[in-house]
Write a structure and sequence with these properties.
With 482 residues, the chain is mainly α. Helices cover 78% and strands 0% of the residues.
Length: 482
């Protein structure tokens, strides 16, 4: 007992100091990377009508400018997670940041719509490499679950700052030129490259069949959903794209089940926490990414606001997430990550439903205030989900697991823009499409909340070692390695 007491006291002291997360090169690099990936998605929304007037194209063109990024992001995330585990998170992250900067430069100098969409594809591919490798950097840099959860919270500040500043900065930059929206990524990317820290890699084989089928499945599904708005679902091109997506999806599932080197190993597919957080991430992005696309067009095309004023109306939504992000780990620690996630999803669903039933000429301040409910999703849903995932998988597979999570996120965002854009362009008119889109977002988010409430890990689950009430976590804090 005399030997045990000092260890217990030291561990409790460490637990109390767990709130102080030491800044590292990995954390700074990951934060900057998350900033530019999020900023590029958010800042673009308010500039879409201006870009349309400059480079041409209808709603389908705007969808491709947005979804060209998210499509490649989703299609290559799984392979990027394997790449991160194989070559090391630092090398993968550095390569992703470098290509992201070059693609941003190409977007900023693009002479027309086709070239802009092409470089958006390159941007999305680079972002796919950056995201899982940035999370893997954090997983390797912080071995203590509590510190790792707080590091993820600080990492989320990068996204929060990008989200909160994006709409207003987008409006300001658009007053000069929409091209500056892409060009500002370059200096931030250079700074992120200078801050990458060391990391380790491990052997990991590449799944060519799985990657090819994933790209075809995501591409066919997104193309079919976008073009269905103008061509209709009976159009041969649309029907063929959707059929190809179904066949490629089946091929992907088969390759993961029977392939020698699947992108998603069976031990990860069997992880209940991974499956649940992927579902939650999909639903989260349907609302969080889909609604800015909808309301950017609503504010500027239906209410005839300039880009700067439209961006200002998103401030309550974005500032809500930015202000709460640093406290997300503390909130999840007190309430439990599962309760935090479910509550956030329910609030987001309520916000979508309320916006759907507003009259067409509702004061803009009311719409802006209700959008703030969607902003709660970042700190209450995504950051606890990421912490939950990282604490449920071995550090050597963190890149692959992060790739699965973020693939689901980007698939949700890409499909939301594709489907919502098709609904806006439908025969019922813009406002009818807007309301139906919002109700769809509310239903998807509420379904994810129900799944989270029913299947989410509790403190008794061995995977949830970040939970302060988890028995294994208590033994860890007391210095018992068992």
């Amino acid at each position: 007992m005399t030997v045990r007491a000092p260890a217990r006291a030291r561990s409790r002291g460490a637990a109390r100091s767990g709130g102080r997360v030491p800044f590292s090169a990995a954390l700074v690099a990951a934060l900057l990377g998350f900033f530019i990936v999020t900023f590029d998605a958010v800042v673009l929304n308010v500039a879409l009508p201006v870009i349309q007037r400059d480079v041409g194209g209808g709603i389908a063109g705007l969808q491709w400018i947005t979804d060209g990024y998210t499509l490649m992001f989703a299609a290559f995330l799984l392979a990027s997670g394997v790449l991160s585990d194989r070559v090391g998170a630092r090398r993968a992250f550095g390569a992703g940041v470098a290509f992201f900067a070059l693609a941003s430069l190409g977007c900023g100098l693009a002479p027309g719509l086709a070239v802009l969409v092409l470089f958006r594809f390159v941007q999305g591919t680079a972002a796919a490499v950056m995201m899982p490798s940035s999370m893997a950097l954090l997983s390797q840099a912080y071995s203590d679950p509590a510190q790792r959860a707080r590091a993820v919270g600080l990492w989320g500040i990068g996204g929060g700052l990008a989200s909160s500043s994006g709409p207003v900065l987008g409006g300001v930059l658009t007053l000069v030129s929409w091209r500056l929206i892409f060009l500002v990524n370059v200096p931030v990317a250079v700074l992120a490259l200078r801050r990458t820290g060391p990391s380790r890699g491990q052997p990991a084989s590449f799944d060519w069949a799985g990657q090819a089928s994933a790209v075809v499945a995501m591409g066919g599904l997104t193309f079919g959903a976008i073009e269905a708005g103008s061509r209709g679902f009976t159009d041969p091109l649309v029907a063929g794209a959707l059929a190809a997506a179904v066949l490629a999806g089946a091929a992907f599932a088969l390759s993961q089940k029977r392939g020698r080197h699947p992108m998603v190993p069976a031990r990860l597919l069997g992880n209940r926490t991974l499956r649940l957080t992927a579902l939650i991430s999909f639903a989260f992005m349907v609302s969080f990414y889909g609604l800015p696309f909808l309301f950017t067009l609503y504010f500027q095309q239906e209410r005839h606001l300039p880009a700067l004023a439209a961006g200002g109306l998103f401030l309550p939504m974005m500032l809500t997430g930015a202000v709460l992000s640093p406290f997300s780990a503390r909130i999840a620690g007190r309430a439990g990550p599962s309760a935090c996630i479910v509550a956030g999803l329910v609030v987001m669903a309520a916000g979508c439903a309320a916006l759907a039933w507003l009259p067409g000429r509702t004061p803009l301040g009311v719409s802006s205030a209700l959008l703030a409910l969607i902003g709660l999703g970042g700190p209450l849903v995504m950051l606890p989900s990421m912490s939950l995932l990282l604490n449920s998988v071995p550090g050597g597979t963190a890149g692959t697991a992060s790739g699965v999570l973020n693939t689901s996120r980007q698939a949700g965002g890409a499909l939301a823009v594709a489907v919502f854009g098709a609904l806006l362009a439908g025969e019922g008119g813009f406002m009818h499409g807007l309301r139906v889109s919002l109700l769809v977002a509310a239903a998807v988010t509420l379904a994810a909340a129900a799944a989270g409430a029913h299947k989410a890990p509790r403190c008794g689950d061995r995977a949830v070692t970040a939970c302060p009430r988890h028995p294994a976590r208590q033994r860890q804090l007391e210095g018992d390695p068992a």
